[in-house]
Design brief:
single chain; seven-stranded antiparallel sheet; DUF3871; DUF3871 family protein; two-stranded antiparallel ribbon; globular; 9 helices; alpha+beta; 23% strand
Length: 325
């Protein structure tokens, strides 16, 4: 793998949250840091494939998404991209090969990030769902650990979503209909077409209606405890045993976070009698999902929506559900 060198100052790699002129709060946490788009463009190298063909840079992906968002919503205000990165890869220029770390100057250090996630918020396109203000949000994920940089360049993989950000807690609300986790393209132009296709096909009203419906169904304390127990059991079932059940992608630590926040979350905790409606339960799940690594976050987020929607369907139709029964 070869690297294209760009003038870099590693001391400036991370910017403070208060300095970011984008939407407030973290849509993902885990081991991520917030960086600026200019940092990605001017202070990071771009990985190459073995045939010296360049990857599509994180900054190109973000710029492409930003252009498509502005084209689809030309008369609305759009915030600057909120960018989170993880898994920094450090290097040095060839002329500094024999220097100690202390002797390296900023120009001799190189970095890039293996994983990048971002969201672009359209605050003027907002909706009120279950007394929570939600704003339209578009974004994506690039995980270079899912590319074979030691081979010749082939189609590159990207993930793109469109959904809503809950202004109360900064949780992302995403459904499978608003998520494409397997975009494979060879150029930025093709990438723009795929992003535009997802935005155009997104059924906003259907998604909002399903979220609104969640608040109409509740679990009492006993049902909640039973469901949490089954969620912990699910992670240990074999593949065949999982086939006829709702899919669940959360890990055991995240399920534990849901339980903790059932008691203590300031916005979505249980009521006085121990009941919790499915909208609050859903937000406890999406909040716990913020601890997921970048390359798993979107899938787990969409899965939370499908899981709670399945619970609502079972309660409404009074049908058997392994997690409830």
């Amino acid at each position: 793998m070869e690297l294209i060198t760009i003038n870099n100052s590693i001391e400036k790699q991370v910017i403070l949250e208060k300095d970011v002129t984008v939407s407030q709060g973290n849509f993902i946490e885990a081991n991520t840091e917030c960086v600026s788009l200019s940092h990605l463009k001017n202070e990071c190298i771009i990985p190459n494939y073995s045939d010296s063909e360049s990857t599509i840079a994180h900054s190109e992906f973000i710029d492409a998404t930003n252009e498509v968002v502005h084209a689809n919503f030309p008369e609305t205000s759009v915030l600057e991209p909120n960018i989170r990165i993880s898994h920094i890869i450090k290097g040095r220029v060839p002329t500094a090969i024999r220097k100690s770390v202390k002797e390296l100057s900023p120009k001799e250090k190189t970095i890039y990030y293996q994983r990048c996630a971002f969201m672009i918020e359209v605050p003027s396109l907002s909706e009120n769902v279950n007394n929570n203000k939600l704003s339209l949000t578009i974004g994506g994920v690039r995980a270079l650990n899912q590319e074979n940089l030691y081979s010749k360049r082939s189609l590159e993989k990207f993930k793109v979503f469109i959904g809503f950000k809950n202004q109360v807690c900064t949780n992302l609300c995403i459904s499978t209909d608003g998520l494409n986790t397997d975009i494979r393209v060879s150029s930025v132009a093709e990438l723009k077409d795929k992003i535009n296709e997802l935005i155009q096909q997104f059924d906003k009203d259907r998604f909002l209606g399903n979220m609104e419906r969640m608040s109409k169904f509740s679990l009492n304390e006993l049902q909640f405890g039973h469901t949490i127990g089954k969620m912990r059991m699910y992670t240990h079932l074999n593949r065949e045993e999982k086939l006829d059940k709702l899919a669940l992608l959360m890990n055991d630590n995240q399920i534990g976070t849901v339980v903790k926040n059932y008691y203590h979350d300031p916005n979505f905790s249980r009521s006085r009698n121990g009941d919790i409606n499915l909208w609050d339960f859903y937000n406890l799940m999406t909040d716990a999902n913020k601890s997921s690594y970048i390359d798993l976050n979107l899938e787990r987020n969409a899965n939370a929506f499908e899981f709670v929607t399945g619970m609502a369907n079972s309660l409404q139709n009074q049908t058997y559900n392994w997690f409830l029964n």
